[in-house]
């Protein structure tokens, strides 16, 4: 118990919570919430066992699909490093390790074809700031997958930790990492729809997203941790993410059949998020709506990485065909 940060006082609060719940039920009242949260039956040192296990399985599914993607898609694919970065999620917090992207020209299908220019680093100004890294190392993309800033897997790690032991630190890390995942999904969409043709725009947009993330975290950390504001901010950027991906999928659904997988992922995630609206006491004091939502998102990783794999192989085929014509 002590390894998970449980103190004698915490354990006393836990026992008192169940005494209170018993008194409420004995008098015929509804199950009460404590500090806005339902009571959960602790298992070992897991404060919310079902949500903790589900978060771990989401991270495991993401990791397994990442390895499948890396073994199926050559690193020369235009979207390879950006897709891998979505799983490890290399963000601008580590500018010296940003993934390079080839410069593509716009085609009639928005899919792009390689130009006559050689592959270039997407953010040269950021790369020049790297310490102890040569231009050759940066251009080759070494270190991209193992950057210390890993948003997607990092988010599931902190989600697991938060549901294992709810503290101010674990709660904030869970919330901040979730916001970062949404922003990185928007960035991934930007690279796929705009960045392959106009890297400078993607670079500027990335800087904007980093600024928004910094302001968001700074406000919640230094001014006031406002749950309402955090929810509104995530919903707003989530809508941008959904609408942008759906617009691109609808525009290219006939030329690129595999984008239907992406469309299915977007719609599934939006539909499954409605589970969060179901606010009920945990079944068997373990399974609440949030845990069910976490469990339901596990298969979505398989579908999304399947789309990324198909799309990356398509872009690689297009780029190789362009080079052969040249």
Keywords:
326 residues, mainly alpha, 2 domains, two-stranded antiparallel sheet
Strand order of the largest sheet: 1-2
What is the mean predicted local confidence, pLDDT? 78
Shape summary: elongated
Number of spatially distinct domains: 2
**Which structural class matches the secondary elements?**
mainly alpha
Low-pLDDT residue intervals, each spanning 5 or more residues: 89-149
Radius of gyration: 22 Å
**Main sheet: strands, sense, barrel:** 2 strands, antiparallel
Beta strand count = 2
Strand content: under 5%
Chain-wise SSE layout:
Layout: H1 8-26, H2 49-72, H3 80-88, E1 104-105, E2 113-114, H4 124-127, H5 135-140, H6 151-164, H7 168-195, H8 199-223, H9 227-252, H10 259-272, H11 289-296, H12 298-325
Antiparallel strand pairs: 1-2
Helix pairs in contact: 2-6, 2-11, 2-12, 3-6, 6-7, 7-8, 7-9, 9-10, 10-12
């Amino acid at each position: 118990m002590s390894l998970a940060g449980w103190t004698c006082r915490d354990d006393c609060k836990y026992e008192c919570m169940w005494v209170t719940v018993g008194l409420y039920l004995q008098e015929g009242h509804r199950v009460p919430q404590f500090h806005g949260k339902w009571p959960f039956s602790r298992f070992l040192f897991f404060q919310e066992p079902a949500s903790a296990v589900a978060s771990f399985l989401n991270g495991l599914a993401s990791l397994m699909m990442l390895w499948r993607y890396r073994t199926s898609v050559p690193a020369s694919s235009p979207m390879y490093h950006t897709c891998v970065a979505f799983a490890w999620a290399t963000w601008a917090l580590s500018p010296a390790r940003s993934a390079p992207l080839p410069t593509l020209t716009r085609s009639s299908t928005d899919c792009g074809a390689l130009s006559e220019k050689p592959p270039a680093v997407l953010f040269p100004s950021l790369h020049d700031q790297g310490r102890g890294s040569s231009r050759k190392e940066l251009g080759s993309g070494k270190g991209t997958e193992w950057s210390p800033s890993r948003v997607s897997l990092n988010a599931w790690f902190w989600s697991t930790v938060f549901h294992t032991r709810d503290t101010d630190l674990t709660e904030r890390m869970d919330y901040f990492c979730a916001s970062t995942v949404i922003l990185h999904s928007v960035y991934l969409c930007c690279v796929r729809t705009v960045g392959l043709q106009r890297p400078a725009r993607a670079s500027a947009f990335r800087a904007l997203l980093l600024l928004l993330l910094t302001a968001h975290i700074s406000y919640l950390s230094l001014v006031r941790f406002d749950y309402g504001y955090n929810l509104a901010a995530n919903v707003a950027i989530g809508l941008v993410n959904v609408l942008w991906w759906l617009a691109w999928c609808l525009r290219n659904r006939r030329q690129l059949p595999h984008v239907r997988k992406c469309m299915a992922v977007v719609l599934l995630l939006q539909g499954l998020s409605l589970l969060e609206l179901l606010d009920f006491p945990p079944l068997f004091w373990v399974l609440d709506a949030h845990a069910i939502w976490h469990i339901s998102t596990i298969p979505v990783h398989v579908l999304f990485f399947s789309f990324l794999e198909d799309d990356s192989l398509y872009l690689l085929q297009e780029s190789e065909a362009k080079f052969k014509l040249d």
